[in-house]
Amino acid sequence: MSESVSVRCPACRREHLYEAPAYPCQCGAPVAPALDPDGAATAVVHRAWDDEWIGVRCAACGRRSEWPRPEVGCPCGTLLRVPVARADTGSARQKAPAARRVFQPVTIRTARDAVTAAAVYLRWLGYRDIRRADQRPPTGIGIAAHGLLAQVDPTVRPASLRDVECLWLTAMTESAACVYFSLSGYAPEARTRADTLGVPLFVLDLTGTPQPVNSLADELDATGAR
């Protein structure tokens, strides 16, 4: 587990005591990035997908995986990026083990958590090089992996027929498969259309566990990436 460090806001000079959250490794052990007590926090001004993730090695099994970069919000309105030890930075893309272990979900409290939960699940399925999608979807957030385009919809309304069709069309232009994750479920016509187009549908519960909605999703959950 990561130790608490003092983080000073560069805008208002307030100090915050911060401890990085732990995420479950594929082996089941909790993993948290090592924080740099001597580093200076920086304000997040612009978002970039590659800056959102850091590589962290599991002390139990040695596996290196990507996890969300530590951040903390200051009452003055500044979002702070917490410095991490040099050994925990950098890319963590690697080949997945042959056998999948029990899925360890990420609790969903924010829209960002929903994206993280979907990315963790896709990585568990065996998809590699997960990143932000090149094209932004009409609703929600697009993420991509090798040969796959996924849409994560963290809104409070059910995904519509148009949402599913737009995802499918975008995936077709990229010669990729596609999958949809929604926090609020799907309109009946969206479910019917997804079955016709071959789009697996999942609902993300608040524990961060994707629940298959159609048979295509059941098959993907059972077989993983091919």
Strand order of the largest sheet: 10-11-12-13-14-15
The major sheet is characterized as: 6 strands, mixed
User: Can you tell me the overall shape?
Assistant: globular
What is the helix content? Answer: 10-25%
From the coordinates shown, what is the CATH architecture of the largest domain?
3-Layer(aba) Sandwich
Helix-strand category: alpha+beta
Number of domains: 2
Counting DSSP E segments of at least 2 residues, the number of strands comes to 15
Span between termini: 34 Å
What's the order of the H and E elements? EEEEEEEEEHEEEHEHEEH
What's the Cα radius of gyration?
18 Å
| CATH topology grouping of the largest domain | Trna Endonuclease, Chain: A, domain 1
**Low-pLDDT segments, ≥5 res:** 88-92, 94-98
In CATH, what is the class of the largest domain?
A: Alpha Beta
Mean pLDDT: 85
Output the number of helix runs: 4
Strand content: 15-25%
How would you summarize the topology of this molecule?
Layout: E1 5-8, E2 15-18, E3 23-24, E4 30-31, E5 42-43, E6 53-57, E7 64-68, E8 71-73, E9 79-81, H1 111-125, E10 131-132, E11 141-145, E12 148-153, H2 161-173, E13 177-182, H3 188-197, E14 201-204, E15 210-212, H4 215-223
Parallel strand pairs: 12-13, 13-14
Antiparallel strand pairs: 1-2, 3-4, 5-9, 6-7, 8-9, 10-11, 11-12, 14-15
Helix pairs in contact: 2-3
Give keywords:
single chain, 226 residues, alpha+beta, Trna Endonuclease, Chain: A, domain 1, 2 domains, 6-stranded mixed sheet, 3-stranded antiparallel sheet, 4 helices, 15 strands, 21% helix
